[in-house]
Structure formats: structure tokens, C-alpha cells
Amino acid sequence: DIQMTQSPSTLSASVGDRVTITCRASQGISTWLAWYQQKPGKAPSLLIYKASSLESGVPSRFSGSGSGTEFTLTISSLQPDDFATYYCQHYNIDRAFGQGTKVEIK
Amino acid sequence: EVELLESGGGLVQPGGSLRLSCAASGFTFNSFAMSWVRQAPGKGLEWVSGLSGSGMNTYYADSVKGRFTISRDKSKNTLHLQMNSLTAEDTALYYCVKEAGYTTSYIDYWGQGILVTVSS
């Protein structure tokens, strides 16, 4: 089975910072990768699919890149609403999530 | 508007069984893959099981293979997850999710989740 590894596990940042989260797959998954945001007590919501496609309604400060085994989620200018936990997920036949990255206030 | 409403959760003893259901509305149920995703208290997301729009192709995480069975009732637009031989490690909030394609795809809609607690 394909394993997904995110780094870092926790990230401390300030409003306005550029933030990058990395996700690595244990084997190549082309661009079959999605990113989700989860706030406490809420179900996750989709940010990015197919590694770099922005879901409708998601602010353009969010972007995704990568293919094969290494992927990144970038928030160009962190906003107060962005403090949350972020998960990557591959969806190549099987599915699997990364362990999550919590973005907290510095 | 897409709605996914889970039911069937609750407290069950170790070794017991539980059947989760998810009533789907707002989209053509038979045209999309569906999955169950769970989240243990204070932990991350874990994909549990999924099936194709036809229901013919099913997939399971290693942690539940042989114990859980996913199915869909097309006549009632309902997704099910039969969970047997439950252990404390199965305690979690279980989300019913809709995927964006007929076969394996990303998740575009989530239910609110239903809590399953395995304890004596």
C-alpha cells in the first residue's frame, strides 16, 4: 500500500507569512493527490485536487504543486482563517491520507 | 445541494458489530464513488473503505480488511458499512464521503460524521 508522509507535523506562523507543507508518497502517484483543510469540530473541506487544481470557491492564496512522489501545498499570505490542520490524500485506486500538518499561530 | 446523513453509530462492546448507514441526496447516487473515512479522537484522518459507482469494485484499508464490508443500496440512495469484530482501535468519528468521479477520486463532499465507541 502507498504511504503518505507530511512534514512538518506542526508549523507556527504569523499572519502574512508564506507557508509551505510537503507531502511525500512512498511510490509514484502521478498527480492523483488532493489537499484538505480541517478546522476543530468540523468536517474537512477540499482545497486542491489533481495536485494543482484549485477547488471552486477556494481563495487563490492556496496553491499546490508536484507530481510523482513529492508534493507541496503553499499558502502565499497566511490569513487568520487559515489556522487549521491540513491533510494530503492520494487517490490512485486505493486512498490514503498523510498524518496532517497543524498550522498554528506563532 | 449535496447532503450526506450518517446514522447507526453508538456504543458497542469489543468483538461486537455495528452497521453504519449514510443517506445521500442532491446528486445522482449511482454515478459516483463513495467512501468511509474515520478520525479517532484527537487523531488524523484514516480512509477506511470505498466503492465505485456501480458498487462492483470495493476497496479496504488493511486495518479493516476482512472485518468491514461496504455496500450501497441504489434503490434507497444509501451507503452502508457493516463493521464486525470491533476493537477499541475502531473507536472514531466515521465520515461518509462522496467522491468526485465514478471510480476512485478525490472527496468533494463530507457528511458531518457519526461517532462509534468500542468499549466494555
Task: Report what the structure shows.
The complex is a heterodimer of chains A (106) and B (120). With 106 residues, chain A is an all-beta fold. Chain A has no helices and eleven strands. In chain A, the strands form two sheets. In chain A, strands 2, 4, 5, 6, 9, 10 and 11 form a seven-stranded mixed sheet that branches. A four-stranded antiparallel sheet of chain A has the order 1-3-8-7, with no helix packed on it. Helix content of chain B is 0%, strand content 51%. In chain B, strands 2, 4, 5, 6, 9, 10 and 11 form a seven-stranded mixed sheet that branches. In chain B, strands 1-3-8-7 form a four-stranded antiparallel sheet, with no helix packed on it. In chain B, a hairpin with a 4-residue loop joins strand 7 (68-73) and strand 8. Chain B is globular and about 40 Å long. Classes of the chains: A mainly beta (106), B mainly beta (120). Chain A binds chain B through residues 1, 34, 36, 38, 43-46, 49-50, 55, 85, 87, 89, 91-100, and chain B through 35, 37, 44-47, 50, 59, 61-62, 95, 99-100, 104-108, 110-113.
What gap, in angstroms, lies between the N and C termini of chain A? 36 Å
What structural class should be given to the helix and strand makeup of chain B? mainly beta
Average pLDDT number of chain B: 96
The helix-and-strand class of chain A reads mainly beta
Number of helices of chain B: 0
What fraction of the residues of chain A are assigned to beta strands by DSSP? over 45%
In DSSP terms (H or I, runs of 4 or more residues), the helix count of chain A works out at: 0
Radius of gyration of chain B: 13 Å
**Helical content of chain A (DSSP H or I, runs of 4+):** under 10%
Provide the succession of SSEs of chain A: EEEEEEEEEEE
Oligomeric state of the chains present here: heterodimer
Q: What is the percentage of strand-forming residues of chain B? A: over 45%
Return Rg of chain A in Å.
13 Å
The biggest beta sheet of chain B is recorded as: 7 strands, mixed
Low-confidence runs of chain B (pLDDT<50, min 5 residues)? none
Largest interface pair: A-B, 24 and 22 residues
**Stretches with pLDDT under 50, minimum 5 residues of chain A:** none
Shape of chain A: globular
Which word captures the global form of chain B? globular
Following the backbone from N to C, one meets helices and strands of chain B in this order, namely: EEEEEEEEEEE
- The count of strands of chain B amounts to 11
